[in-house]
Each structure stands twice: as C-alpha cells, then as structure tokens.
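re: ur question from yesterday

yeah so i grabbed the chain u mentioned. its 230 aa long if i counted rite. heres the sequnce exactly as i have it in my notes:
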Amino acid sequence: MKTIQQVLIETDHKSIESAYFYEHPINLWEVKDLDDITIGEFNKSISARFQDFLNKLCEMNAEASPEKQGILFVYKSQTQDIILGEVVGLIHADELMGTEELENLPLYAYEFTEQKEALSFLVSDNKLTQDNIMDVIVDFLHEISFFGYDQESLEEEKKKLDESIKECEEHPERLITFNHEKFCREYGIPITEEYPEEIEKKRAFYDAGMEYTRYCKAIELQRIKDSFGK
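ran it thru and got these structure tokens back, copy pasting raw so excuse formatting
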C-alpha cells in the first residue's frame, strides 16, 4: 500500500483541484474584501493558494504515529442521507489485525490530526478504493485543512474541544436535550405529518441500511486484512 502522500505526489494536481472545488465550492458571498478584485483574479488567487497547499504536502516530512498506523479505504454505505453511495473511512491497522469482529471496527475522524502525521496514512489497494481514489484524496484534503491550509487555528480549536469535554464531564446537568417539536413550534416551522406506521417503517429502513453498511464495511476490511498476509 502507498501512503496518501505518495498518492498526492503521483496524481495530477490540476485534476485534484478541479475535483476538490467541485465537491467543496467557495461561495463568493462568504468571502470578505472582494471590492477591488475581479472574479478572474479571485479564481487565480484561490488556485495558486491551493496549488501551494498541495506542493507543501508533497514536500513535507511525513511522520507516522509510533502507536497507530492509519489506513484510508472506501466502502459502500446506505443511510438516510446517502443512498447506495461510497464513503471514505479511516481505521487503525493494529485494531484491524487484532479483531475478527470487523463490522464493529471503529472509524476515526482526523481533522485534529497534524498534517505531517496524516500524510503517513496508508491507502488501501482494494479495487473499490482505487476506483474512487479521487474521492479519497478530496476527503483527505478537506479533513486536514478543516482548520486552515496551514492548520493555523488547530491548537485553538483543540483547546476549545478539551474545555468542552471537561465541562460536559464536570457539569452534565448543563447538557441540553433537543426537542424537535418544541423547536418547530418556537420558530413557527410547520411540523410534518407522520403516517400511522411511519416511525416503524423508517426505523426498519434505517436498520436495514445500517446492516448493509456494516456488511460492506466488513468485506472491504477483510480484504485489507488478508493483504497483510501476502
């Protein structure tokens, strides 16, 4: 398996840029200080900044975690939000090799992971992953730039997260439960009619989707696990 950094180096950067901004477009009305710049100049500036970001990642010294080797892979998923789509997941190699219950293997987010460590993640050689390699790249870039291309606000956000976790642990009484019906009534939002058996049908649909997703995930994970023995 190649590292995600190797994949970035070997993939055309203009193609990556096109795929990335197709998936994560920039809305002009969300950008400040555009009074003295044309749309063309703005696009050129954004492109140059993104290409600098890619080049920086390709030249950075990747540092793998001594404890957890991450592996990126793609699996089929069916939930209420995604109908028979593909999802990119991150697992830890030691946990994969240490269990037979692959359906329950945890997946990890990594927006709080430093870029130099994330670049050491391996990319599965499974066919589904390789067939959707651009999705893997786009998902990866979005995760590691969640707090800026240079992760400029990463430490501040980590501190806020730690403080929030501490507050939840020390003051659980401050946690707020969400009441959908109360929220709708408060803000004048029409409450959608529920059919007599809708909740049960929706639950059955959700449960079937989760069973399908766990099955597909386990198939892909078993293939990764088998590849380590080759």
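noticed a couple things. Strands lie at 2-3, 70-77, 85-92, 122-123. also The longest strand covers residues 70-77.
anyway ttyl
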